[in-house]
Design a protein that fits this description.
- The protein is of the alpha/beta class and about 250 residues long.
- The protein has one domain: 3-Layer(aba) Sandwich (Rossmann fold).
- It has nine helices and seven strands.
- The protein has a seven-stranded mixed beta sheet with strand order 3-2-1-4-5-7-6, sandwiched between helices.
- Helix 5 crosses helix 9.
- The longest helix is centred in the C-terminal third of the chain and has 19 residues.
- The chain is globular.
């Protein structure tokens, strides 16, 4: 059984592991929440897409305690970890690649903002179009999609793309040097070895929730899919190397 205290310790380790790939992760979180706050509602309804264990949602509610955040993911283990660590958040098990996923969310009103960090690149380019099209049906006019992720431009600006990667790597070198945090695989290996996760690991294996590759890593994949879904404006709010916060206005 995963206790709250153990879950909080594992979340600290998760955040550290993620920072190894994103040395400016907290700055991106802050900018994203700034954008939600700029909508001007003290009680925004927010969807966290591919929420994982809830790192972003927890920070958002800490800043905006009146916000209602619906956290959506398909990974049983990460959802279980999030529920144990953040019992005040609402987690929903749903696969964004399956049509009708918005019907599982129990929404009482149109959504003010949909947010995501380092998650939607797992979705194929074709599935991404369907995800954004369905998302558009529940966002209010003027509502936002805020997606923080690594997004490359190599197909149109190869030299700039190489520089973006170089800037990102140099930022990591300055922050960590040779003392990089554990990587994604090492974190998961440790989780699989912890008896407290035994039931969640079995559920995860049954669900086939493991991630492989980066299916929609190009900025153009997201921009084109958002425009096809009817979003009026699409642009980058914040960027550090190839690490971006993409914003689309419904």
């Amino acid at each position: 059984m995963l206790t709250h205290d153990a879950a909080v310790e594992w979340m600290t380790r998760w955040d550290r592991q993620q920072e190894g790939y994103l040395p400016d992760r907290e700055e991106r979180f802050t900018t994203l929440i700034d954008a939600v706050e700029a909508l001007g509602r003290p009680d925004p309804l927010v969807l966290d897409l591919g929420c994982g264990p809830g790192s972003l949602a927890a920070r958002l509610v800490e800043r905006l305690p009146g916000a209602e955040v619906v956290c959506v993911d398909a990974d049983p283990l990460l959802l279980g970890l999030g529920r144990a660590a953040y019992p005040y958040l609402r987690f929903v098990s749903a696969d964004l690649r399956t049509g009708g996923w918005t019907g599982c969310l129990g929404l009482a009103r149109p959504v003010d903002a949909a947010v995501s960090t380092t998650a939607l690149h797992w979705i194929s380019e074709q599935d991404l179009k369907a995800v954004y099209a369905e998302l558009a049906t529940v966002l209010r006019p003027g509502g936002l999609l805020l997606n923080g992720d690594h997004m490359d431009t190599e197909e149109v600006t190869p030299a700039l793309s190489r520089l973006e990667h170089a800037l990102h790597e140099r930022e990591a070198e300055r922050q960590f040097g040779a003392d990089r945090p554990e990587d994604w695989r090492a974190w998961w290996d440790a989780v699989e070895a912890d008896p407290a996760f035994a039931d969640l690991n079995r559920e995860r294996t049954t669900a086939g929730a493991d991630h492989h590759g980066s299916e929609s890593r190009l900025l153009s994949h997201h921009v084109e899919a958002l425009r096809e879904a009817g979003f009026a404006e699409v642009g980058t709010l914040w960027q550090r190397g190839n690490n971006r916060l993409l914003c689309a206005v419904r």
